[in-house]
Amino acid sequence: MEIAIASGKGGVxxxxxxxxxxxxxxxxxxxxxxxxxxADAPNMHLIMGLERWEWEEPYKESMVAKIIQEKCIQxxxxxxxxxxxxxxxxxxxxxxxxxxxxxxLTCSLVCPVEGAIVREQAVSGVLRTTKTKYxxxxxxxxxxxxxxxxxxxxTEEKTKARExxxxxxxxxxxxxxxxxxxxVSSLAGANMAVLVVEPTxxxxxxxxxxxxxxxxxMQPAAIVxxxxxxxxxxxxxxxxxxxxxxxxxxxxxxxxxxIPRSMAxxxxxxxxxxxxxxxxxxxxxxxxxxxxxxxWMIWFLRFRPKKPEPYKPIxxxxxxx
Length: 321
Ligand code: SF4
Ligand code: SF4
Hints:
The chain is of the alpha/beta class. The chain folds into two domains: 2-50 and 132-303, Rossmann fold (3-Layer(aba) Sandwich); 61-123, Alpha-Beta Plaits. Helices cover 36% and strands 24% of the residues. It has helices at 14-27, 44-47, 77-81, 106-110, 150-164, 181-187, 201-216, 232-244, 258-264, 269-272, 277-294, 296-303; strands at 2-6, 32-37, 55-67, 87-90, 93-96, 117-131, 137-143, 170-175, 192-197, 221-226, 248-253. The strands form two sheets. It has a nine-stranded mixed beta sheet, sandwiched between helices. A two-stranded antiparallel ribbon has the order 4-5. The longest helix has 18 residues, at 277-294. The structure holds iron/sulfur cluster (SF4) (2 copies). The site of one iron/sulfur cluster (SF4) has 14 residues, from helix 3.
């Protein structure tokens, strides 16, 4: 069973909610795995107060060009043709900026010296796991600046989680912001999506976009409104949107400075300020997710999007037939 937490817009409380859900599920006796699927800006480990990783592996996915200085005759042809302007010159000679290089090897086609430009695997990031103090594993990844294939890295994280999971394990995926490839990879294969929104026009708009993605995956989706009381009118509109679109409404979290204070303490808010209004709301939401998991099959059948009508071709008969 896999739950993806997404929002479309960043900074609306996805990771806070993900941490609250995964910790509560673990406390209710469920076997859980947390996946931080924001490889550009991972922060789940910070929320959980983790500073060390038990296992780390370099993520080598893409290829970049490398100039062999001993062979290079400094003609500059490679720099002239590089479509990404990834070749620069310093006091030692021509070099490739591996952050910009796309590995297209146009440079090597024009290089007059055989073997002066080679292609090598670039370390694009790191995949890592550790055990949290709550007993469940956290899988995280970090992409190096400018490297591509972030969606593939998220898929690697989820593959790792699925390898560790039993049939009853609940994998909670804290996805990245936006609707890019990391979010697509986070949602792909998830049994349910929880969408977090703040009552601001930007966040509501982003929610609609990520909701379209869940519809594409034919996923049951539910909504949580964070800081609902900063704009009660828009919060009502979001609730209306949820009911019109068959989105389960899991609850709303009030604005509460215990959340930023818990982040400063590098601890989940439900742990350090359990009696704060935000923590109480988050716990209720997490318990609602827990009961959905109990009978999620019924829930899934209730919210499963209707199958489209079978396509009926219109046959036009030529005149006289
Ligand atoms: S491989 Fe392509 S992007 Fe990289 S340096 Fe050569 S021409 Fe530029
Ligand atoms: S084209 Fe080849 S020889 Fe010329 S500067 Fe580039 S690497 Fe050196």
